[in-house]
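Chapter review: from sequence to fold.
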Amino acid sequence: MLRSRRISQIIVYFFLLIGAAFCLLPLFWLIRSSLMTSLQIFEMPPKWIPAPFQFQNYVEALTSIDFFRFFRNTLTITVSCLAGALISSSLGAYSYARLSWPGRNIFFSLLLASMMLPSAVTLIPTFIGWRLVDLINTYFPLIMPVWFGSAFDIFLLRQFYSSIPKDLDEAAYVDGAGPWTIFYRIIIPLSKPALIVIGLFSFMNSWNDFMGPLVYLNEESKFTMALGLQMFQSLHSAQWHLLMAASTFVIMPVIIVFFIGQRYFIEGITLTGMKG
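The token string follows.
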């Protein structure tokens, strides 16, 4: 019995390994191609390991246009959105999960309903609104909406907060603590996995956002990495080795952040679904 279970586990791990290899193959191909010449990329049969490694591709790609300026712009937007997502969503979720106020369930239902509204429906009215206040070609349209809370983030945190025993709140109330003290001394320290999940989602959404900067930014000096990569592709569409190097540079921060926080990501997602 024990041996058959062991064999079944080995089979499961084997298929999981095969699936992971297929998922990682495009990333490996991207990095491998970024270290080759254009001729080596399309050689048949294909070479899996560059020989020699063309690290000069990264130097040429990153100096052909001002990628480091785009990196600073993207980092400014991403950090601002990250702070906004954590602050606004945690406060909103705490209100829905732990406080009692008239119409709470109705407003929460409306919040969930807003998640079913496609972003394309609100794109033009939102653009007109920002144009009326003369904030087009600034970072405000990309940052300010996050500071008013995301429906998905609030829902995710609300589920996590609901799984925390309310006996902790009642004990704190007996000791004379108020809602704000309970929030930052009890709820926040216990919610680190969920907050890290929200932070990862916010980081990836802001870093990879293409439509927002495309709509609201006009000056090249304010472009983000996504727009910079699109501009680079239009200038070097035939130079695949440089395009692969630029693409690797753009996505590498997301990969690094995800691998650093993946343990908390899985833990947060798992614990969030413990209680509805």
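Two observations follow directly from the output. The longest helix spans residues 2-34. The mean pLDDT is 85.
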